[in-house]
Amino acid sequence: MRVAIVTESFIPTFNGVTTTVCQVLDRLAATGHQAIVLCPGPAPATYRGFPVQTVRGVTVGGLRLRGRTAELERHLTAFAPDVVHVASPQGLGTRGLNAADHLNIPSVAVFQTDVSGRLAHPSAKSLSRALSVAGMTLAPSSAAKQLLIDSGVPRVGHWARGVDTTVYHPNRRNSELTRELRQCLAPHGETIVGYVGRLTQDKELHRLTELADLPGVSLAVVGDGPDRGRLEQLLPRASFLGHRQGMELAGTHAAFDMFVHPGRSAMFGQTLQEAMASGVPVVAAAAGGPLDIVRPGVTGLLFDPNRCGALRESVGGLLADPEMRARMGRSARTKIEHRGWATAVDELVGRYGAVTAASYARRVA
Question: Among 9, 27, 185, 250, which residue's beta carbon has the most beta carbons within 10 A?
C-alpha cells in the first residue's frame, strides 16, 4: 500500500503527534509498504528510506499551520498514494483532507489532539466540516469517539495508540539510574506516587493536594507547563522533576510505585499506558480515556472526580496494601503487552484498507 502522511509536526519537533507518525512509518517500512511524509520544515530529507517533503506555511505556537492546498496536491499527485493519512486534523491536516478530497484519494484522519477542548472551541463547526470529507476519522477512545459523533462528524472509528513495551518495562526498575532516582525520591522507603504530563489547569492537578499529607507518600511530578509555579506553591513537599523523555522518562515511570491521573479531560491517556507497561498500577479519574485503559480492581482504580476526597481514598487504599499494588502492577503489564506499536499500526493499516475499499465501491457503483 502507498500511504501519504500529512502531519503538522515531525522531526526535529518531538511530541505525541511526531512519536505516533514515526511509529507508523517504522511499521510501514518493516512490513513492505511505501510512504511519503508531507510536513512543515525544517525536516530531514528522508525517514526510514521514505521521502519527506516540506510544505510552506506560517508558524503559530511553534507549529506551521497554514499549508497550501495546491502544493499538497502537487506532492500527492506525484506520489499517487492509495490513502492519505492526516495526523491531527488541524491547520495543515485540514488542507491535507481538502487536497485528498479534491483529488479523489481516500483519507483517514487520526484525531490526537485534545478532542474535548477542540470541540468546545468556537471553531468546532469548521472542524466538523473539515472532517466531513475524511473517509474515516479515528478517535483514540470511546469517549472521544462519542464526542466526535455528537458534534456531527460522520464515519467515526476507534484507534487507540500503541505503547513501546520494550522501552517501558518493569525490568527498568532494576537499572542503576532508576534505583538512584528511587533513593532520591524515597530516602526513607516512602511509597512513590507519580504524575507525568503537562502542568496546565485543565489537568486538574490541584487535586494532588489531597495526597500532600498522606503518611509515607513521596509525590513526584514529571512535566512542565504554565501552571508549574502555582503547583509548586500548592505542593511544597512534592518533587518537581521537569520535562523528561525517552529512556529517562521510561526509568522515571519504572521508579513509581503508583501512577495518578487526576484530570477529567483526557481523551486518551498515553502516560497511563506507559505506566502500565512499566508494571505500575494506575489511579485515574473515572472519565474520558482512562475508562478504556484502566480495569478497576485489576490494573488500578478509578475514582469519582466529582467527589472531594475520592482520589485520597483510592491512593490510601493502595498505599495500605503493597501486595495488591504489586498484583495490579503485574496485571497492568499483562494487559498492555498486546498494545505494542506493531499491533496498533497493523490495526491502522486495516482501517486504510477499509477506507480504500469503500472508496472503490463508491466509484464503481
Answer: 9
